[in-house]
Amino acid sequence: MARSFLLILLLATVFIGCDKDRVFDEYKSLPNQWNKDSVLTFTLKNIDTLQSYNLFINVRNNNDLEYSNLFLISEIQFPQGKVITDTLEYEMAAPSGEWLGIGFGDVKENKLWYKEQVKFPESGKYKVSLQHAMRKNGNEKGIENLKGITEIGFRIEKTPN
Questions:
Q1: Residue 104 pLDDT exceeds 90
Q2: pTM summary value
Q3: In a domain, 16, yes or no
Q4: Average of pLDDT values for 59-68?
């Protein structure tokens, strides 16, 4: 019994130590589809204003995704009201049609670069919002409900010194 406990404690310590640069890592689940008007918001508190960070968007998808790329609109809202908006495009599948990312079976996870060497100069609460911006070629209306995206995550890591 004590031997099992020590093994579990050792494994937990190893896994936690491997992720020492992580500052924030949160996922939002999507029920079967992602509506074009659904905005996923991540609230960041107590971010060190002197440290620089790398930002990532994590996407988990399954075989229901009908597209080889993913368009997103991101917003970072600063504590004092400033907003930075970006339109992003990510490849989700290779030209052969094979899903990119890691994972076994139906679900693949992609850790996608968002911004490098970012500083959060204002103290207070930041909000990061993500929304899909998928459209079919020649159609300005956009895809109402995007299938195949099961979770969206946002991750912040300290930059190496």
A1: no
A2: 0.85
A3: no
A4: 95
pLDDT, greater one: 46 or 5: 46
Average pLDDT over residues 99-125: 95
Tell me if 108 is assigned to some domain.
yes
Listed as own residue / partner, the contacts of 111-117 with beta carbons closer than 8 Å and 24 or more positions apart are 111/56, 111/58, 111/155, 112/56, 112/57, 112/58, 112/59, 113/54, 113/55, 113/56, 114/55, 114/56, 114/57, 114/74, 114/88, 115/54, 115/55, 116/54, 116/55, 116/159, 117/52, 117/53, 117/54, 117/159
85: CATH? 2.60.120
Please state, in angstroms and rounded to a whole number, the distance separating the CA atoms of residues 83 and 106.
36
Q: Which domain, by its residues, includes 150?
A: 22-158
> CB count, 10 Å around CB of 54?
18
What amino acid is encoded at 68 in this protein? S
User: What is the domain count for the chain?
Assistant: 1
15, part of any domain: no
Q: Does some domain include residue 36?
A: yes
Torsion sign (Cα): 117, 121, 127, 129: negative
